[in-house]
Design goal:
The complex is a heterodimer of chains A (about 525) and B (about 525). Chain A is mainly α. Helix content of chain A is about 70%, strand content about 0%. Chain A has 22 helices and no strands. Chain B has about 525 residues and is mainly α. Classes of the chains: A mainly alpha (about 525), B mainly alpha (about 525). Chain B: This is Alpha-1,3-glucosyltransferase.
Chain lengths: ~525, ~525
Amino acid sequence: MESQSTQKLKNPPKPHNPISELWWFFAAATCVKLLLIPAYRSTDFEVHRHWLAITHSLPLSQWYLDETSPWTLDYPPFFAYFERFLSIFANLIDPQMVHLQNGLNYSSDTVVYFQRVSVCVSDLCLLYGVYRLTRNLDPVRRKLIWVLVVWSPMLVVVDHLHFQYNGFLLGVLLISLSYLEEGRDLMGGLVFAVLLCFKHLFAVAAPVYFVYLLRHYCWKGLVRGFGRLLILGTLVVAVFAVAYGPFVYHGQIKQVIHRMFPFGRGLCHAYWAPNFWVFYILLDKVIAFLLGRLGFKIQAPAASFTGGLVGDSSPFAVLPQITPAITFIMVLLALSPCLIKAWRDPRPMMITRWVAYAYTCGFLFGWHVHEKASLHFVIPLAIVAVQNLDTARHYFFLSIVSCYSLFPLLFESQEYPIKVLLLLLHSMLMWLGFSAQFTKDKTLEMAPSGKNKDSHLGLNRSVTAAQKGGFDIGWVVWSYLVGLLLVEIWGQFLHPIFLGAELPFLPLMLISVYCSVGVMYSFLWQLKHILVS
Amino acid sequence: MAKSSKKSKEEEEIVDSGDDAWWWLVHKGITPSFFCIALFSLLVRVAVSLHPYSGAATPPKFGDFEAQRHWMEITLNLPLNEWYRNTTRNDLSYWGLDYPPLTAYQSYVHGLFIRFFSPESVALFTSRGHESYLGKLLMRWTVLSSDALVFFPAVFYFIVVYYSGRNQRGRMGGIAWHIAIILLNPCLILIDHGHFQYNCISLGLTLGAIAAILSDKDLLACVLYSLALNHKQMSAYFAPAFFSHLLGKCIRRRYPIFEVFKLGLVVSGTFLVVWWPYIHSVEAFFEVLSRLAPFERGIYEDYVANFWCTTSVLVKWKRLFPTHQLKVLSLGATVSTFLPSMIQQIWAPSKKGFLYGLLNSAFSFYLFSFQVHEKSILLPLLPASLLASEEPFLFTWMTIYALFSMFPLLHRDKLILPYLALSALFILLSLAPNRRQETRETNAFRSIVTTFFPFCSLILHVVYLSMNAPQRYPFLFEALIMLLCFSQFTFLTMYTNAQQWMLLKHSNLVEKEKKLL
């Protein structure tokens, strides 16, 4: 018996063709995405359609000046080029789609199908990124990552229901990370520069990239290092030149920058993203309320957090006003431990964690953060999640919290079962996947040690250890997740019954506050693990 | 020692299965994997339900969606004895109830649910042709909940029973695949959640009955199957198989007459309960009964891939024979085609033979009975999906053509996108990683089946979607699709009948061996 089982251990499993399996995962996801085509879509759908029209109907010099619709082009030039590329096909299929005036709010079947399918196709980039990152892993880990990324419910909600191209952009990020993990720093840096020219919000991780590349790639003696710095610098500048060059040529660079950074928009988005500022706002409200009770005269703030267009007046009653500069400094401060770590010990295996951490900081302390931005760290963390039991526990928790925080994006009843089922299915898959992974790891660890001792005793122990070593998330996380369920039940069912139409913002605020506790926890967890590692 | 060897064997399997692509999904046993697959299947159903239903925005008669909604309106607002009667308040020519009472009760319950949230969509008279965002959503949710509450538990019951007593650990991947293939049957999803019907209820009850028979709970099976019959009279497609298998079992017991009597009592008891409001007068009883058999609609409608419709290209049945002769003719053809499989089950009832018997009798009804809908292919498809782990190739083949036979219908309903997506999903499932252990002999026959016919159907799809039929033959493409599917179905049913009889030979051999030993 014993010799048999050890023999089994020695025989390496037959290798599968990973690509065909990855295609299978991707194709299965695509079928579901295609089924979701007629579902709710946000105004972002019209935004992207209008960008098709702008880039197709106008010369390049007008792209960032056009004001035909309120949905002006506010992504960097590469994304505009990408839209220009798509518009070639759009024009072939239905010219009205790319007509500047006639196309406004055009919502025929063709435009819906075209745009939805374009998102599904652009996800190929994500597929390639995941493939690059996972091709050298063992089969179980690899499959787990595919499940987490290719079947990510958050991407389905944001890209295929709400409508955006995050899968594509995150694919570029994953490609860049895969180069860095392989030690091909130059390519990694280059791809990241390209990513920045697609969507500037990814720039939050730029300090990490800068420190890491400087230290890991350029820090090789004075002459060689300087040479490398020069090469890297030239490449990055070249990428930016390709992107912004034409606009510099037309003398519009100021206009482009102005469009890309609309600081007039206020500290928070219409629905507060679950970040640090939620606590700040809440604290302000509580203090104002308490002072009011104590007899102090507190002027109700004239401005709102979300608009922020009302001159200089502060939206806060008591606490000092927050400006973009403050948020910028806060992000850098939060990032600094990670930067120091990256400088002292630049290891390729840590870069994914650091980048994810950087996006977490940006999410928590940034200016006018969207709830969708949580994708920027949840997707890269999926790569890290399979490393050990701790990271898996953390990912399980974080991914549920961030996915739940996206629920308010889909507010119509038709999509309610979809988002709930997506989250449940994802949690279930994660639970099964992680417990399989760690049961297996334990068995593999224990089996050889049992070999030396009394045979059946050792085996006995290894199996019980395997059963114990399954995936257990601990009671704190459990109770937090139960709380999540209560928040949802309150918002969906109890609030309408007990309060009716009163305090309509309360359910949303509850979700924000509750989820921001979770994200804060995740931030601290990541910080701790970066410092300890 | 025994304990430890068992455990080490388990461990061996854990290590051994490192290669298995689905080990991570199934390592916790049947229940969690079933739950996981069920969630995915529900998601797919919800996604399909976003698409249009039959007869959306096509007055004056709309489609099946309006029929179901109208039944809710009728059952909710009229007294029970008016449901099947033509009165001033109930115009039977406008989607009158033509399903047995259980459907009426189900409509009533669903009507209550819908009235709670949207009273105007089930109001008497004024709601005719009612179409609204909320109305559609609520109607869709009634199907979803019926599916989750009836069909899904039935599948779970079946899987547990079917795989009990076998070595589960080694076969978990196969079991999960089987669950997925039953739950993600594209035809059922498209008809129930796209086109709009409640087949999940009657099929779920039938499946429950099948599982009960497999676990030797014959009385429960009788109750469940009678309920299925009372939900949709089409469930009678399975009657020969149930009857013959139970009869075969009974005559092998000690008191055959008593056993048959017991089953008969349970069946008539269930019927009595369901029909209670209608059995007080003969008149009321026949009123309902006459609604259930719409013989006035002719032997075939549209283009169904069955015998009558396909041969009508050459033989104009409707002109050659009056309706009452056609009735006898179709009855004779149906009975003579399901008789062999019945005899086999009475002769040597076996669990596997029962599943084949269900398939064969449902097929003979689909191919030869009076007034068959293209949707009725769902009935033979159910037992075929139960046999999927034995006959994966047969099932894949059958599903693809069953789907294809409904293509014109789904095209009318504007369900092409879900049709394509679900077909793709189904093909992906049948090609799922690590599903290729079956023997892959490549003989001439198989290569024709796997290349030539799919190629034909692919061409037909493209032609159907991109070209208009010639003016002289406006239904040319429909007829071609019908012809192709009919040929496949005929071949399939000949094969499955042969398979069922082969079981006999096999069991004889086993018995002989036993005797020799």
